[in-house]
Amino acid sequence: MCYHANNDEMLYPDLVKLFYPYPYRTNVIETLHLLKQEGYWTDSRTEMAKQLILSKRKNKGYMPEKIFMKSSWYPFDQLKQCGPWLTDEIERLFAETFLY
Questions:
Q1: Does residue 12 lie within any of the structural domains?
Q2: Residues 88 and 29 sit within 8 Å (Cβ to Cβ)
Q3: Is residue 87 part of a domain?
Q4: pTM score, two decimals?
Q5: How far apart are CA 57 and CA 5, in angstroms?
Q6: Is residue 16 part of a domain?
Q7: Residues with Cβ < 8 Å from 70, sequence gap 6 or more?
Q8: Are 43 and 35 in contact (CB under 8 A)?
Q9: Facing residues of 10 across strands?
Q10: Which residue from 13, 29, 36, 62 could staple onto 41, CB 3.0 to 4.6 Å apart?
Q11: In this predicted model, what pLDDT tens digit does every residue of 29-43 receive, in sequence order?
């Protein structure tokens, strides 16, 4: 899911960075949300991406690794601090079912 189909080259580095909200570029969290909604959550091709996200969890949650468009957007969470918005987004992703 994170690599080109024909080789082991990553699609783009920001794909695996944790950030919220999603600007014009997507990331692994948003991509997995879409795949889950379409019924692909248990597809083995998503396992590496799921493990990558889970490996980034800290004691109190997840920390944003990047903020896009700092001059235009107010950041929901601060860099290098556990972010409640980002953590909630990831916890909803890994929940059994969507609430909406």
A1: no
A2: no
A3: yes
A4: 0.75
A5: 28
A6: no
A7: none
A8: yes
A9: 3
A10: 36
A11: 888 999 999 999 999
